[in-house]
Specification:
2 copies of one chain form a homodimer.
Chain A lengths: L4 E2 L23 E8 L3 E9 L3 E3 L4 H5 L2 E3 L2 E5 L5 E4 L1 H14 L7 H14 L11 E10 L11 E11 L10 E5 L17 H5 L2 H9 L4 E5 L7 E4 L3 E6 L2 E4 L10 H12 L4 E3 L4 H9 L3 E8 L3 E10 L2 E4 L7 H14 L10 E4 L1
Bound molecules: pyridoxal-5'-phosphate (PLP) (2 copies).
Chain lengths: ~350, ~350
C-alpha cells in the first residue's frame, strides 16, 4: 500500500523504563487511521501523530455501539528483531467481527501492510525485557453523526500502539475465579464470538462484584442452561482432566482466541489428547471430587497463560493443584513466550518480522 | 444549578422548514456538557456551542462500550408554549441505566435543571407543526483513555438536541414486522433493561436482514425459549386480544418504555383490562386463528404509537385488522399527541413547561 500518507511528530517520545510500563495507558508517537464512506469504500490511509481526534457527539458508536477491535502483540527478540505474533490470525478475526457488526469488510493485506509500516516507524517503542511487548490495538468505530438506529455510512479504522509491561511481574500467580451465576455475557444468536464493545459492557457489573468479593476474574456460564462453561473475562479457559486437555467448543457465543488456538495446536503437536466440546461446571466439580482435575488455566494475548488456583461456584470453592501453577501451564507459558522472545526456534511460523 | 457556565455561538442557526426535518441529523446551536472524575464527582457543567469534541482514540467507550443514553421530546404547543413530555420519567430511567453500566449516579434535579436551561436557550429550535418536536438526547460516555477492560474513572455527560419531523408524514402506515428467530437482543442477567449501546449493536444484523426481506422492524423473542415476546427494535409491543390490552411484563431483558407506561396508565384510566405478563408468540398466533387478535401496536417516543399490520414468524404471515390502523391504536395516538400538542388538557400532569 504505497498510498499511505505519513505525518511525523516533531519530537519523538521516549519509551518508559520497564518498571514504568503498565497496560494500555502509554501510547507511541504515531497511529494509523483510515476512513470508510459508503460509495467510496475504505480510503485516505494515513499515519499521523497519536493525538485526540475530533468527533461529533452524535456519532453512532456513542449511541448504538457499532464498533470492533483487536488485540495483538509485537516483541523485541533476544537478537533485537521486532516480530509480530500470528498477525494474520488476528486480522482475519477482525474481519469476521466486522461482518457480525455490519461493518464493511477490510482488505486484510492492506491492514497488514499498514500495521507493518507503522511498526517499522515505531520500532524504538518496543520494549525488550522478557514479558514486555508492544500491544497493538486495531479498531473501527462508526463515526457518522446520526441519532437513528442504523448501520452507519461512515467509519474510522485506527491502529494504536501501547508498550506494555510484563503481566507477571513477580512470577506466575494463580488466579482465583468466580463462576458467575447471576450475570450473563453472551448468547447464541448474539455477538459473543465477535470482538466488540457490547460484550465487554456486559461484563462490567459482574467484574465489579467479583473484585469486591476478592476474586480476580469471572468465569461465564452459558446464558440458557447456566451450566456450560464459556470463557473468562478476556481469556478462554482450558482444563486438564485426567491427562486430557478439554476446552469449550467455539459455539457462537465465545471468542475464538488466538492463544487458545495456539495452545490446542501445541498440545496436539506434543501428542496430548485435546478436545473441544461442551463442558459443564458440574463435570469440572465432579472431576475435582474424583481427584482428576489436574490443572485449570486461561489463555489470552495479554497474559498468554494464566493458571487458575481456585474456582468458586455458588459459594462452593475448589482449590486446584494446591493453588500452585501446574506443570502443563508452565510448559505452555515457557514455550509460547520462548518463541515470542526468540529464545525458542519458531518452528510453527508464528512470528513475522518487521523489516 | 447556578453554576452552569454558558458559552454562546456567535451566530445562531435557523430551524429548517418542517419538510426538511428528518430524524436525528440536524442539531441545535448549543449542547450541555458535564464531566465526571473519580474523587471529584460530576463537575464543570456547561452550555457550549454544538461542535466536534476532542477525544483520545483509547477512550474506554470506543473499546468496551461503557455508555448510556436517553431519548425524550419537547413540543411547541398550539398556544406557543414549549413543554417536555414526562421529563422525570426519562431522567430516572437514565439513572437506572447508569447503575447497570457501573456509571456514577447523577443528580436528577441537576440534570433536569440543566436540560431546562438549555431548552430555554434553544426555544426557537422547537418546530411547531403537528407531529414535529425537539428530540432530546442525554448521554454519557466513558472517556478515560485506557485499553484494559474496567470501569472508567472519567465520563462525559452530554445533552444534545435535534428538531425532528413528523414520524407519519402521510398518515398512519401499519408496519410489517418480522418475528426474529435467529438473532437475540438481550437476556435476563444481561443489559436488556438498560438504554445502552450494547443492545442496539446486538440488533444491527437482524435489522439489516429484516429490511432486506421487506420488513419494517424486528420483533424480538426471549433468548432462552425463543418463544416469549420481548419488544420491537425501539418500541415496546402491545396486543389487544379479545378486548384486553396485553404487553410483556418488565422481566429484566426489555426496556421499560415511558410510552408503554403512558399507554398502560391511559388504558386503565379508560377502564380497559390491561395486563403485563409473559406472552408467547404461539398465543398471539392462536388468538389470531380464533379471530380474537383485535390489534397489535408498538409504543415508543419516536413514533408514539405504531400500528402493526402484519407479523411474520418462520415464514407464517398473519395480517392484523386487514392491515389497517385499529381504532384503539388511533385513539391512543390521538390522545397522547393531543396532550403533547396542547390540544387536549393535560389531566395526568405529563407536560412540563420550559419558562
Ligand atoms: C472475551 C475474550 N475471550 C478470549 C480472549 C482471548 O483471545 P486471544 O487469545 O485471541 O487474545 C480475549 C482476549 O482477546 C477476550 O477478550
Ligand atoms: C429497545 C427499546 N424498547 C422500547 C423503547 C420505547 O421506550 P420509550 O417509550 O421510553 O421511548 C425504546 C425507545 O426508547 C427502545 O429503544
Amino acid at each position: 500500500m504505497s498510498d499511505i500518507t505519513v505525518t511525523k511528530v516533531k519530537q519523538v517520545g521516549v519509551l518508559p523504563t520497564d518498571k514504568e510500563l503498565g497496560f494500555g495507558t502509554i501510547f507511541t508517537d504515531h497511529m494509523f487511521v483510515m476512513d470508510y464512506t459508503t460509495g467510496k469504500g475504505w480510503h485516505s490511509p494515513r499515519i499521523v501523530p497519536y493525538a485526540e481526534c475530533a468527533n461529533y457527539p452524535a456519532m453512532i458508536v456513542f449511541h448504538y455501539g457499532q464498533a470492533i477491535f483487536e488485540g495483538m502483540k509485537a516483541f523485541r527478540t533476544e537478537d533485537n528483531r521486532i516480530c509480530v505474533f500470528r498477525p494474520y490470525e488476528y486480522l482475519n478475526r477482525f474481519n469476521r467481527s466486522a461482518e457480525k457488526l455490519c461493518i464493511p469488510k477490510m482488505d486484510v493485506e492492506q491492514i497488514h501492510d499498514a500495521l507493518f509500516q507503522l511498526l517499522a516507524l515505531e520500532k524504538n517503542w518496543v520494549p525488550g525485557q522478557l514479558g514486555t511487548s508492544l500491544y497493538i490495538r486495531p479498531f473501527v468505530v462508526a463515526d457518522e453523526p446520526h441519532l437513528g438506529v442504523k448501520v452507519a455510512d461512515s467509519f474510522k479504522l485506527y491502529i494504536i500502539l501501547s508498550p506494555v509491561g510484563a503481566y507477571y511481574k513477580t512470577g506466575f500467580n494463580p488466579v482465583s475465579i468466580k463462576v458467575e451465576d447471576k450475570y450473563v455475557r453472551a448468547i447464541k444468536g448474539g455477538l459473543g464470538e465477535a470482538k466488540t464493545p457490547a460484550n465487554y459492557a456486559m461484563s462490567l457489573a459482574a467484574q465489579q462484584d467479583a473484585y469486591a468479593e476478592g476474586f480476580g476474574q469471572v468465569l461465564w456460564l452459558d446464558a440458557v442452561h447456566r451450566k456450560y462453561i464459556e470463557e473468562v473475562g478476556t481469556m478462554n479457559i482450558l482444563f486438564k482432566i485426567n491427562g486430557e486437555i478439554i476446552t469449550p467448543e467455539l459455539n457462537g457465543s465465545i471468542l475464538g482466541g488466538i492463544t487458545r488456538k495456539t495452545v490446542l495446536e501445541l498440545s496436539r503437536s506434543w501428542g496430548l489428547k485435546t478436545t473441544e466440546r461442551q463442558i459443564s461446571i458440574d463435570e469440572v466439580y465432579d472431576a475435582y471430587a474424583k481427584g482428576q482435575l489436574d490443572e485449570v488455566f486461561g489463555s489470552g494475548t495479554a497474559a498468554v497463560i494464566s493458571p487458575v488456583g481456585e474456582l468458586s461456584w455458588k459459594g462452593q470453592r475448589i482449590v486446584i493443584n494446591h493453588n500452585q501453577t501446574g506443570p502443563y501451564a508452565q510448559k505452555l507459558f515457557d514455550y509460547i513466550t520462548g518463541v515470542q522472545s526468540g529464545k525458542i526456534a519458531d518452528q510453527f511460523g508464528w512470528m513475522e518480522e518487521v523489516r
